């Protein structure tokens, strides 16, 4: 794996460790609702968990945005990305692929000085090149990505050790996207995208959103 395509994990798809295997899957909030425990540490995490994570997302612009933000997460925590998302949306023209595709090296240099976003040249350049890859597709982005969504499973995870970081479907999606010129789309990053866009639903058994 090259330094320009480091993989990442979403809040609930980190590889199991000794700590995660014993960590509670659920936490009950002050409102009396049981939630996936990864959402308990921050109010923005709770909002994201309750309103976005795991809900089916089919909008092409939103899927492109999620791809880019998951790529920016590589090596960082997801809360870091959530807190910067308004600035990301501002500087990348609402993640409209046609607008982002027109960005130039001058824009890259400007963003490398913008403290509101992640100042990583490779990730910034990948966001622009991925927009161009979206425009070059011979199938809609939604159709391409959702074509790798696995069949729904009858059971939900009950423990952190039951949540994978990589699946055959995310590996296949990664391979196809890379073949089509996309960057920062490693298998773990793509599984995180599958979780966040509802292609898979990894809310723990007992979570009120399950």
Automatic annotation (TrEMBL):
Protein residues bound to Zn(2+): 36, 49, 203, 207
EC assignment: 3.2.2.20
SUPFAM superfamilies listed in its UniProt record: DNA-glycosylase
Annotated spans, Disordered: 1-26
Short name of one Pfam family: Adenine_glyco
Gene Ontology BP annotations: base-excision repair
GO MF, one example: metal ion binding
Name of the protein: DNA-3-methyladenine glycosylase I
Organism for this UniProt entry: Leifsonia sp. NPDC080035
EC class of the enzyme, as a word: hydrolase
Keyword check for Zinc: yes
UniProt xrefs under NCBIfam families: tag
